[in-house]
Amino acid sequence: MNASDGSGSPGGELVQLEDSARALLEAFATISSDLDTDSVLRRIVVSACELTDARYGALGVIGPDGQLGAFITEGMDDATRERIGAYPVGKGLLNVTAAKTETFRLDNLSEHPLSAGFPEHHPPMTSLLRVPVRVRGTVFGQLYLTEKRNGQPFDQRDELLVQSLATVAGFVIENARAYGLSERRRRWLEMFSDLNDLLMPPITLGDALDRIAEAVCDASGAQSASVVQVPEKGEPFAAAICGTPFTLTPEERVLFNKAVRTVVETGEVMDLPVRDLGNAVLAPLRAHLTMPGVLILTRSGRQHAGGEVEQLELLASFADQAALALDRTQALEDREQMAVVSDRDRIARDLHDVVIQRLFATGLHMQSIRSAAPTDELRERIDQSVRDLDQTIRDIRGTIFELQTRPRSSVRTEVRDLVREHIPILGFPPSVHTEGPVDSTLEPEVQAQMVTVLREALSNIAQHSGARSASIHLQVTSTHLRLKVTDDGCGIPDERHERGLRNVRRRAMLLGGSLDLWPNDPSGTIFVWSVPHSADNSAAEDAQPLSRAR
Q1: Which residues contact 121 (CB under 8 A, 6 or more apart)?
Q2: Residue 529 domain-assigned (yes or no)
Q3: Of 180, 212, 229, which residue is a domain's last?
Q4: Sequence-ordered strand ranges (E) for 477-547
Q5: Which end of the chain is more exposed for a tag (fewer CB within 10 A), N or C?
Q6: Is pLDDT of 390 > 60?
Q7: What single-letter DSSP state applies at residue 111?
Q8: Which domain holds residue 42?
């Protein structure tokens, strides 16, 4: 601004007016060149500083609760912001709810009765210009400018320039918010249409939960998204997480778990503040076939969020769609299990009604022709064949009994059920990976011992390790079973009493196997229980008489 004659002459005032108009037009063009709301807000602060030659500027945005919801600053470097610490909470002159329609200038803000002072490491500030920013007649926030670079206080010209900028900024913010809302709505609608494709079978329930968390995190632009399941007994636990989740103190976790159960009981969306980090939005997953759950989004409180009400409505609709998809996934899993049970029953009926009856008829026929055998040797061979048929019938009857009375679940099912049983105790769902013919080769004794050992390993993690995650890897080869359980807890101390581990080690030795314990990197324990098994050998022996029969 070069009104250099300082005489108040018409020529000097005209030059100053032209410079102001040019600067104001440039500011209008700058703040109108972007459609992202956060970028627009920062451009407004920068343009206001450039118009008034202010060293520092800030825009305090009114949040949904009427308090200071976001605070965009200009003029301080990152190191200064870090030394100052948390952003202001909206007290004193920064109270966005006080005198919302008032524009005022202060030559010395410390003399104002509302002045609350500055925190430690805050740069000194003397003069202040505060101008409200309105969107559709409603105060959106307050624009603050301090410390002109020439050391002079703000004058009427500065006030008029910033008021003009604030007027145009209201229209630009409204346009950016409308665009942002339409983009969010478009992303949500696309996610609605893609949800069925994401959860198409074959897919496990755990994978479905992971994909739901990823989808909602992407559609909402949140810092993190998680699916928390709520058992009848025990604490709620995060079954799937996407993004960077927040941490809670023990006291906060109690309140958070209470809020989660409230959302499940009421079926209503809840907005929950999380310290000074931001807020968490909780939406119920109203599924009927799976464990009750809650979809949780976390967002920074310093990010401006437009269209808050519609965001919550879109999240609630997405949660309902996700719940239907989870019910479908669970129903498909249940149907697969029922199909297995039905096949076992059908095979058992066919063995009893067809195979055994034919073998029995064959044995009777052979006995009827025994009397016609010309030699004792031939009669002995017929008797031996009849005895073999009787043994075969007994074997088949045993198989039928096993098929009908032994819904002994598969190894994978037993492991999954055991993990699900321990989730409330652990506070998190361990990941499970299987490799090899897990369900088809293990002898019942080895399977029973493995389940007992896994139960002991999970109990040790829950009671002693303080772990936040764990993984289970079950590998079955033609000769060995190898169970590997890894956690990120405190590890096994050098001096320990191996009561439970001694039993686990003994079980391995009785089966001719071993137990190994290694430190995990960077923390925790690797538990490896390995034993031989001979299911393939017994299967080969069972196959030999059939080969001879052929």
Answers
A1: 80, 83, 84, 85
A2: yes
A3: 180
A4: 480-487, 514-519, 525-532
A5: C
A6: yes
A7: G
A8: 19-180
